[in-house]
Design brief:
- With 171 residues, the chain is mainly α.
- It is built from seven helices and no strands.
- The longest helix is centred in the C-terminal third of the chain and has 28 residues.
């Protein structure tokens, strides 16, 4: 890339060789090299390295939570009910709002068959998200029995909402 800049500055094609020497500044640019690697030597303990990893994981988790808060239009600082029932209803409400778009894109009718197809699709995505959240909490050693029970209860309530949707549609 530096060669392109050098030759462009002299109005020469990239593969042309100048008959006169280049100015010193351009020669030094052409000789410079870039490296994307470096070495770093420091002694850190296992607990320090674990702390660094956990800090970064929590930072990413906060970003996901902030995005979800914005998507669900929950104002910053508002206390959020994190009970299984409230969480499941937020997830189900959010997911079910996509039915009309999904039905239109896939040529489905708003009948039990069309709603069942959507519920299978969106239910699979929700299950995947719950499994990923469970995995993250487990990796962070934060999946205690109480939280695992809450996750199971939330998943069960969501499934009930999806089943009700298939039978009765949006109410």
């Amino acid at each position: 890339m530096v060669q392109n800049v050098s030759t462009a500055a002299q109005n020469l094609p990239v593969n042309a060789r100048p008959s006169q020497p280049r100015p010193a500044l351009l020669q030094s640019q052409a000789k410079s090299t870039r490296t994307d690697s470096f070495s770093f030597s420091a002694k850190i303990s296992f607990s320090q390295s674990q702390s660094i990893v956990l800090d970064r994981a929590f930072e990413q988790l906060r970003g996901v939570v902030d995005e979800a808060r914005a998507a669900l239009e929950i104002p910053e600082g508002q206390v959020v009910d994190t009970s299984a029932d409230a969480t499941a209803n937020r997830i189900a409400d959010f997911a079910l709002n996509f039915f009309s778009q999904y039905a239109e894109n896939n040529g489905l009718e708003d009948n039990e068959e069309g709603r069942a197809q959507f519920a299978d699709f969106i239910g699979g995505a929700i299950t995947q998200g719950i499994d990923e959240a469970r995995g993250i909490l487990n990796a962070l050693s934060a999946l205690d029995p109480e939280i695992a029970t809450g996750i199971d209860d939330t998943a069960s309530i969501i499934q009930g909402r999806l089943n009700d949707f298939v039978t009765n549609g949006l109410s």
